[in-house]
Amino acid sequence: MSHKRVAILISGGGSNMLSLVDSMVGDHPARPCLVLSNDVEAGGLKKAADRGIPTAAVDHRPFKGDRAAFEEELLKPLEEAQPDIVCLAGFMRVLTGDFVSRFQGRMLNIHPSLLPKYKGLNTHARAIEAGDAEHGCSVHEVTAALDDGPILGQARVNIDTGDTPDALAARVLVWEHKLYPVVLRRYASGDRTPVLLP
């Protein structure tokens, strides 16, 4: 069986990356081929290396807002790894349409809201402030528009009275770690049917 090659982009500790990596075993149709970060000190790089996964980092800071130049450097380790699928897992840089178009139809992202609600940042606080009864996370195909593209899976959690953004974020993260591996497995098998958890 030839496995799909998966590159995972991270910016921090890589908890979603680990949930993906640890799921890609046995009869899973995919295997990790690279963990790539925009921060050379991202904690997830060491965790990936400890699991024997190739890693690379391209620090975005020297590029002073020149996204095209940063992405040109980011592409080098990606093209070398030749991924079939690219997973954004807490990658905190907005990618240009040019970059996304290179991986159109094979790039996934996980976002902490029930899209199309609350694109962008501070999703947990925004859901609480809006008085929503539920919140959650979404996995979607990446398009040039921010947090847009076909939704491939969602997991929902109730918002409790007195919830804080941090408390809500912690509960949503548990479901992120469950949802993303389920979607990736199906996606790598060619199944684009949306998943709803729990």
UniProtKB/TrEMBL annotation:
<keyword id="KW-0658">Purine biosynthesis</keyword>
<feature type="site" description="Raises pKa of active site His">
    <location>
        <position position="147"/>
    </location>
</feature>
<dbReference type="InterPro" id="IPR002376">
    <property type="entry name" value="Formyl_transf_N"/>
</dbReference>
<dbReference type="GO" id="GO:0006189">
    <property type="term" value="P:'de novo' IMP biosynthetic process"/>
</dbReference>
<dbReference type="Pfam" id="PF00551">
    <property type="entry name" value="Formyl_trans_N"/>
</dbReference>
<protein>
    <recommendedName>
        <fullName>Phosphoribosylglycinamide formyltransferase</fullName>
        <ecNumber>2.1.2.2</ecNumber>
    </recommendedName>
</protein>
<dbReference type="InterPro" id="IPR004607">
    <property type="entry name" value="GART"/>
</dbReference>
<comment type="similarity">
    <text>Belongs to the GART family.</text>
</comment>
<dbReference type="InterPro" id="IPR001555">
    <property type="entry name" value="GART_AS"/>
</dbReference>
<feature type="active site" description="Proton donor">
    <location>
        <position position="111"/>
    </location>
</feature>
<feature type="binding site">
    <location>
        <begin position="14"/>
        <end position="16"/>
    </location>
    <ligand>
        <name>N(1)-(5-phospho-beta-D-ribosyl)glycinamide</name>
    </ligand>
</feature>
<feature type="binding site">
    <location>
        <position position="67"/>
    </location>
    <ligand>
        <name>(6R)-10-formyltetrahydrofolate</name>
    </ligand>
</feature>
<dbReference type="InterPro" id="IPR036477">
    <property type="entry name" value="Formyl_transf_N_sf"/>
</dbReference>
<keyword id="KW-0808">Transferase</keyword>
<feature type="binding site">
    <location>
        <position position="109"/>
    </location>
    <ligand>
        <name>(6R)-10-formyltetrahydrofolate</name>
    </ligand>
</feature>
<comment type="function">
    <text>Catalyzes the transfer of a formyl group from 10-formyltetrahydrofolate to 5-phospho-ribosyl-glycinamide (GAR), producing 5-phospho-ribosyl-N-formylglycinamide (FGAR) and tetrahydrofolate.</text>
</comment>
<dbReference type="GO" id="GO:0004644">
    <property type="term" value="F:phosphoribosylglycinamide formyltransferase activity"/>
</dbReference>
<feature type="domain" description="Formyl transferase N-terminal">
    <location>
        <begin position="4"/>
        <end position="184"/>
    </location>
</feature>
<dbReference type="GO" id="GO:0005829">
    <property type="term" value="C:cytosol"/>
</dbReference>
<comment type="pathway">
    <text>Purine metabolism; IMP biosynthesis via de novo pathway; N(2)-formyl-N(1)-(5-phospho-D-ribosyl)glycinamide from N(1)-(5-phospho-D-ribosyl)glycinamide (10-formyl THF route): step 1/1.</text>
</comment>
